[in-house]
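Quick check before the chapter quiz. The format below is the same one you will see on the exam, so make sure you can read both the input and the output lines.
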Amino acid sequence: TIRLLLVFVACKRKGGRVVQARACTASQETMPMPNLPLRISLFLLAALLLGNCATRFDIGAAEYHVTPQQAANNIGLVQNKTIAWGGIIVVAKNLASQTQLEILSYPLDKNGRPEREAKAGGRFLALHPGYLELANYAEGRLVTMTGTASETRAGSVGEAHYVYPVLAVKTLFL
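Here is the expected output.
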């Protein structure tokens, strides 16, 4: 007698109907045993590679809990402290010796990136020493930066009067 150790049905489908079906014994066909350590290693490698896609911006010990709107109302909260702010570039322009970015701020996540789904925290002006290529720092791009804020400037958003805190940029992440 042929002892049936393992029965499996192999089906090949074409257009939803069975084209071939057969049963076999373990002695006729064997299913390969998965190489478990190899699969675990591949899974861990994939997880590490995908985890590195979300690079953490190094904002160091910079203060990031005070919003630009709060700073505009009381510059003393951040005055001459290293702070980290981020958001979306609204306007960028090259000046004689520096580049000015107007940023609509958003809170930073644990990786130092702006959280666009969160409520905006006001606008600020970022002054970066030297020239930045405006094609890279175009309207709508997300940025994170660290620096010091020591003043505010009056300006406007549309026809509305607006007070901007001014950040002297030390580091800039695109």
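If your answer matched, good. Residues 1-14 have pLDDT under 50 and may be disordered.
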